[in-house]
C-alpha cells in the first residue's frame, strides 16, 4: 500500500504564481480602455461635485450627488483595468458590463445638441473597441477563460 501525499493547502499553487509569458497587446489595450473610462468618470464626477459646492447650479444637492455617483461608478472600470493587467479572469465581466452600459450613454450623447455629439462619438468608439478587445480569443486565453464544452474531449 502506498501512501499518497497531499499538498499543503496553505502553500501557493505553483501554476497560479508563474507568469505565463508576456501580456498580449489586446489585453493591455482592453485595460487601457477601461482605465480611460474610469478617468472620464472621475473627471466628470469631480467637475459635478466642485460645481455643486462652488458654483450656482439649479440644484446643488443633485449636482453633488451626481458627482459622488460618477466617482463611485469610476471605481468599477478602474478595478477592471487593474484586474486585466494582472490577468485576473474575474475582471473581464465588470469590464464588459462597463462597455455595454457605455453604449446607450453614447447614443444619448449622439442624439443631443452641441458638445455632447463629439463626446458621444468618442464614448461609442471606446465602448466598441473595448468590447472587441474583451471578446477576442487572445484576451480570453490570456485570462484563462475557457469556452463552453466538455472538459475531457476525446
Q: What's this entry about, in short?
A:
By secondary structure, the chain is mostly helical. The chain has helices at 14-17, 25-54, 60-85, 92-110, 116-135, 137-142. The radius of gyration is 21 Å and the shape is elongated.
Notable traits:
0% strand; mainly alpha; 154 residues
SSE order, as H and E? HHHHHH
The number of strands is 0
Number of H/I helices? 6
Characterize the biggest β-sheet. Answer: none
Global shape: elongated
Structural class of the helices, strands and pairings?
mainly alpha
Low-confidence stretches: 12-18
Task: Compute the average pLDDT.
Answer: 86
Percent strand equals under 5%
Fraction of residues in H or I helices: 55-70%
| CA-based gyration radius | 21 Å
**Distance N terminus to C terminus?**
32 Å
Explain what this protein looks like in three dimensions:
The chain is mainly α. The protein has 6 helices and no strands. Helix 2 (25-54) runs antiparallel to helix 3 (60-85), helix 2 (25-54) packs antiparallel against helix 5 (116-135) and helix 4 (92-110) packs antiparallel against helix 5 (116-135). The longest helix has 30 residues, at 25-54. Mean pLDDT is 86; it is low at 12-18.
Furnish the topology, listing elements before pairings.
Blueprint: H1 14-17, H2 25-54, H3 60-85, H4 92-110, H5 116-135, H6 137-142
